[in-house]
Specification:
This is protein-disulfide reductase. The chain has 582 residues and is an alpha+beta fold. The protein has 19 helices and 29 strands.
């Protein structure tokens, strides 16, 4: 067990809760009624310090779980106390949030005490739950949020020994896993259909079972389950013993019911504790996820969703995704990729055109034989707006030298006015906003974040799925974005590097000397653009400069975008220079 860091009053974990929670002249905590409680009177152990705030969505989701656990332990007569350490910005928000909590809190007015606890326990994110022995101050765990979310009441008294015991029990359970142990509980031996029927879990014995983790209204999951439904029906048609069970992560029943109504398979009842347990049991990391259970009840694959996303409906031919079946799928995919042409990507039935600025239809046939960049982007995406001026500049440079080059904009905008406004800034072509080919292209190239550039060569073959990085590093010189061109550029840089100084001092980093090093991809701390192959670097400070920036000895200016920020649509998170599906 670890000991807490010293707090602002100079006490330490070894002095117990008084030394940790008291600050200055304050020797008490408060209840939401306003009652003051002497710290010395707290007899409960363990005690949890709950770092949380009303403005934090994950906190608001976790707090009800903690309240439920707190009340249940109290009803069983088990010793446990919680102390709320608020991260709210004002007292009104603190009071409204604290009013829902049945435990104690550090007074909001004691900002020094709250900040001292934040610093003492090195809190870098919330919700954060530190559980410790009230008598000695020894820290049982700083992962209380994780343990309570995963194990609930079973984790009590939250000691390392208890957590290890639970993990050992889970390991033993996996060794003896059956379909009943995965899906059932001591009080429930059935699943439900979307018509409300109860289906005994025993009916799934001897079948392959896919556990599909779902969230209603989340685009990537909705898209995945639509494809999975077709595969499910096909496997039923050809006589495969296959069933799917939805594991809902929805927080409300109406959202679950709406999405489940579209699914032809079974589900664990919404809100059942088993749903949360399975998240931990199968170490859920992303959505969509489809866990495949074999006919013997043992796990065959922790996630076959990637296989289905890659191959689409044709993935049914690879079922149940053995090594031999996957090899067959891979060979088919390879053959399909080898036969790819620009027409096969951009023509669908009567849709054999792209559009220009005035809405004029440009036949896809006019692009055949050119290098074409497919530009996945949207006006609502801040990184996309920031990248566009660079792309326009490099596009114009390439077009000056190479007439056999074009870009096609594939928009993720949600309305025509946004599309029109953003497209008006682009000197190239586009697919219409509501065009059905967009979904096919996003699926084909597995677009997970924007902005994204996919380069299609003159033969119609994909030459790069990350032309954006090549363009950011090499500019127009990256054309035509092939591996051969990248190798040429690297050789040119290596030759130039022979004439550069091995070390230098720079005004942007006067603390230490910068050393010329061979690097992979990095971000330049001078011009804040991407770099590759060579950098003037300080390892101690994690500082990099492009050779062009270091040798020019001046920082490249950067214009402000100046455009009002727009909120990303639900299901997307914008971080750094990319907006991804959450």
């Amino acid at each position: 067990m670890a000991e807490a860091e010293p707090t602002t009053n100079g006490g330490s974990a070894g002095g117990g809760m008084g030394a940790i929670l008291a600050a200055g002249d304050r020797d008490f905590l408060v209840r939401n009624s306003g009652e003051q409680v002497k710290i010395s009177s707290i007899e409960a152990s363990p005690v949890a310090l709950y770092f949380s705030a009303s403005w934090c969505p994950p906190c608001r989701r976790f707090t009800p779980k903690l309240i439920e656990l707190y009340k249940e332990l109290a009803s069983q007569g088990k010793s446990f106390e919680v102390v709320f350490v608020s991260g709210d910005q004002d007292e009104e928000a603190f009071n409204a949030y604290f009013a829902k909590m049945p435990w104690l809190a550090v007074p909001f007015s004691d900002s020094e005490g709250r900040e001292g606890l934040d610093g003492g326990f090195k809190v870098s994110g919330i919700p954060h739950l530190v559980i410790l022995d009230a008598k000695t101050g020894e820290v049982y765990t700083e992962d209380g949020v994780e343990f309570i979310s995963e194990y609930g009441l079973e984790a009590y008294p939250f000691t390392p020994e208890r957590i290890n015991e639970l993990k050992e029990q889970e390991k033993a359970a996996k060794d003896k896993q059956t379909i009943q142990s995965v899906l059932g509980t001591s009080t429930r031996d059935y699943l439900i259909s979307n018509k409300g029927d109860k289906v005994p879990i025993s009916e799934l014995e001897g079948k392959y079972v896919g556990l599909c983790f779902v969230v209603g209204g989340y685009g990537p999951v909705d898209e995945f389950t639509a494809v999975l439904a077709k595969i499910y029906e096909k496997l039923k048609e050809v006589g495969e013993k296959f069933e799917v069970v939805a594991v809902s992560l929805d927080s409300d029943e109406s959202s679950f019911n709406e999405s489940f109504a579209k699914m032809p398979w079974l589900a664990i009842p919404q809100g059942d504790k088993m749903c949360e347990k399975l998240v931990r049991y199968f170490e859920l990391r992303s959505l969509p996820t489809l866990v495949l259970i074999g006919t013997d009840g043992k796990t065959l694959n922790n996630n076959v969703a990637d296989i289905i996303e890659e191959h689409g409906f044709e993935a049914w031919e690879g079922f149940p995704y053995s090594a031999e079946k996957l090899e067959t799928l891979a060979e088919k995919a390879k053959a399909k990729a080898a036969s790819q042409t620009l027409e096969s990507l951009l023509i669908s039935g009567d849709l054999d055109f792209v559009i220009g600025k005035d809405g004029a239809k440009v036949p896809v046939s006019e692009l055949v034989g050119k290098t074409v960049l497919l530009y996945f982007s949207a006006k609502w995406c801040g990184p996309c707006r920031a990248f566009l001026p660079t792309l326009v500049k490099e596009y114009n440079k390439i077009k000056e030298k190479h007439s056999d080059f074009e870009i096609v904009f594939i928009s993720s905008d949600r309305d025509q006015s946004s599309f029109d406004e953003f497209f008006s800034e682009m000197p190239w072509l586009a697919l219409p906003l509501e065009d059905e080919r967009k979904a096919f292209l996003k699926k084909t190239f597995r677009i997970r974040g924007i902005p994204s550039l996919v380069a299609i060569g003159p033969t119609g073959q994909t030459v790069s799925r990350d032309a954006k990085a090549q363009l950011m590093i090499h500019g127009a010189d990256a054309f035509p974005f092939t591996e051969e061109r990248l190798e040429e550029l690297q050789k040119e840089l290596d030759e130039m590097a022979k004439g550069w100084p091995e070390k230098l001092k720079h005004e942007l980093h006067e603390e230490h000397e910068l050393v010329l090093l061979r690097r992979g991809t990095y971000g330049c701390d001078g011009c804040e653009e991407m770099g590759s192959t060579w950098s003037y670097r300080c390892d101690e400070c994690d500082f990099d400069l492009h050779p062009k920036c270091a040798l020019a000895e001046k920082k490249k200016g950067e214009e402000e975008d100046g455009k009002a920020a727009e909120e990303a649509p639900a299901g997307y998170v914008c971080e750094g220079d990319v907006c991804r599906k959450a």
